[in-house]
Amino acid sequence: MSLADVKKNAQERMNKSIETLRADLAKVRTGRAHTGILDHITVDYYGSPTPLTGVANVTLIDARTIGVQPYEKKMLSTIEKAIRDSDLGLNPSTFGELVRVPTPALTEERRKEMVKLVKSEAEDAKIAVRNIRRDANEQLKKMVKDKTASEDDERRSSDDIQKLTDKFVADIDKMVAEKEKEVLTV
């Protein structure tokens, strides 16, 4: 493994951490309805847990209501129960062949809880990025020890990895600031 491979591997892993954070932040509820908040819900479909999007069409009816149209009519009650039992605090209701999921406006207290959750997710992502930096630096030190790289190369590569880490941490902070603003907007 070369120095460039170590840097490339670290950058790819940091990108994955950012994408994971982006997906986690999409699940955090804001005052508006969006279909992404139902992405992590699974329903029992013939005995196997299946993602909600695999058994129903999820759409926005209006700014505060999500519509869930099952592909099979008999899945209506199962879908409604899965949404109700989720940790989202939503109260779905069935209208004909459609499950309507109204998203209530967030209270100030609930908004602050959401901001805490966003910051917690961000801290987890930062820890992941720092762990990737540590792993990359250990690989560099091992390469110097095995005499496959010089100490100067290791120092330069270590600086590059630190710059990469700083960039990803700044990206995380920017994403969190945007999500925090979105959550606190009434």
From TrEMBL:
Q: CDD domains of this UniProt entry? A: RRF
Which keywords describe this protein according to UniProt? Answer: Cytoplasm, Protein biosynthesis
Show the Pfam families listed in the entry.
Answer: RRF
Coarse class of the primary localization is: cytoplasm
Lineage top rank: taxon: Bacteria
Where, subcellularly, is it found?
Cytoplasm
Q: Does the keyword Cytoplasm apply?
A: yes
Residue ranges of the region described as Disordered: 141-160
Stored PANTHER family: MITOCHONDRIAL RIBOSOME RECYCLING FACTOR PSEUDO 1 (PTHR20982:SF3), RIBOSOME RECYCLING FACTOR (PTHR20982)
Instruction: Describe the task this protein carries out.
Output: Responsible for the release of ribosomes from messenger RNA at the termination of protein biosynthesis. May increase the efficiency of translation by recycling ribosomes from one round of translation to another.
Write down what this protein is called: Ribosome-recycling factor
Record the organism.
Massilia niabensis
List the gene name.
Answer: frr
